[in-house]
Amino acid sequence: MTIPVVRGMAAIAPDYDALILDLWGVVHDGAAPFPGVIDCLARLREAHKRVIILSNAPRRAHRAAARLDEMAIGADCYSAIITSGEAGRLALERRDEPWSAALGTGFFHIGKAADSDLLDDLDYAPVADLEEAGFLLCTGTLNVAEEDAILRRAVVLGLAMVCVNPDLAVIHNGKREPCAGALAASYESLGGTVHRIGKPYAGVYDLCFEDLDTIDHGRILVVGDGLATDILGAETVGLPSLLVTGGLLADAWGTDRMTPPEPERLEAACQDAGVRPTAAIPAFVW
Asked: pTM for the whole thing?
């Protein structure tokens, strides 16, 4: 059977009581919300659907919410927001896993300076010298030459990397940009150890389930444009999924975000990724 393609959320919303919704490539492009998104969120609210935003943003949830406010996507548009950065902070605060318990308290940050506050007020301290670090905290990418030197030295020092954005790439204002996940993959290729927090790993979904504890999992729909993150994550935790083809796939295919995918191309992409969404939709519109 081919993957069903719907033209709007109106066709599928009655089958679900809650959504776990991706941000980049689905709700906005990093600069502004996509046309029809705010209207779609309002209609879901009117239909009493719970919407949990789950983003692989490498920052605190309140900062992600503030950015949405700037785009006129207010708190009335969703029930809660969970970020991989917040999940990473929580994991490092609890230190309840063998890998996190083994980390030191000094970390070397790789990423934008704006995201360097992720572990503020916890028992950790940023260091400027790799020799003093207990681990790498990766929230984003740097220039290639600087990255290579840092990663190669960190491997020699035996530093583990904690990556709080497993995404390989994102479409920012129409341009594909690498994310922390790409740097994590490079570190592994050099022989480094990486601990990833965020989609598609199960731990971040547990935080969603805390907000959706009264809803049957069969009626929670994961919506996202990433085959290797959103759709794989849904399969990992046993949830139905809706693939938005107007994000990463449209960029790869060179198509318009509102254009329905060709069935054969969609099937091939999902087969190559080893996943199968419940359905697909060109864009997150009503």
From this structure: 0.92
